[in-house]
Amino acid sequence: MTPKPRELTVLAFDFGTRRIGVATGNSLTRSAQPLMTLEPGDEPRLWLQLDRLIEEWQPDQLLVGLPDKDQSGITQQGAKRFASALKSRYSLPLDLVAEHLTSFAAEAELKNSRREGHKARRVRRGEVDAVAARLIAEQWLNATPNE
User: Fold this and answer.
1) How many domains does the chain have?
2) Is 1 within a domain?
3) Cα–Cα 20 to 30 A to 99, which of 24, 50, 68, 69?
4) Separation between Cα atoms, residue 142 and residue 41, nearest integer Å
5) Within a domain: 2
6) Chain segment 62-82, per-residue pLDDT in tens
7) Residue 3, in any domain of the structure
8) Domain annotation covers residue 4
9) Number of helices followed by number of strands (H, E) in the chain
10) How far is CA 88 from CA 8, 83, 136, in A?
């Protein structure tokens, strides 16, 4: 008898110095959806929001997008520090997901959705970051075997 695949809930983060996109994903459906965008400037407020997300979604896995080295070293270092702080605070499994231009892909996807009439208003930066986090989650879900 084949064992039933284990269902995992993931929270994915697209780290940026101005905004952090957040998405959730499911390992059984291998799908993800954007949730929200957080602002890292007010650190106590940021951690309060993250505490609420962790409590609400009860994730089994955390993911943080790691930009290419070609991009700003500050963002890559910031993403690593953010990932380390998440792992330390929540004691959950955490993977860094090598991402390449997810923000550009997310922006193109949203603009195309608007052009096709599926989205009524203009594309906002916060939406781009949350969709980029969704792309990070989907990349990880599609690359990870479901045991």
Assistant:
1) 1
2) no
3) 50
4) 32
5) no
6) 999 998 765 555 678 889 999
7) no
8) no
9) 4, 5
10) 20, 9, 21
Q: Given CA atoms 114, 115, 121, 125 in this order, what sign does their dihedral have? A: positive
For residues 98 and 137, the answer to whether their CB atoms sit within 8 Å is no
CATH number (domain holding residue 21): 3.30.420.140
Tokens of 43: 């650190």
Distance CA 79, CA 85 (A): 10
Count of residues making up the chain = 147
Closest Cα partner for 18 from 72, 89, 95?
A: 72
Distance CA 132, CA 62 (A): 15
Q: What is the pLDDT of residues 86-119, one digit of tens each?
A: 999 999 999 999 886 666 555 555 556 555 555 4
How many Å apart are CA 92 and CA 109, to the nearest integer?
31
- For residue 26, what are the contacts with CB-CB under 8 A and spacing of at least 6? 7, 8, 9, 10, 32, 141
Taking the mean position of all CA atoms in its chain, how far away is CA 31? 12
Rounded Cα gap, residues 100 and 107, in angstroms:
13
Residue whose tokens read 């990349």:
139
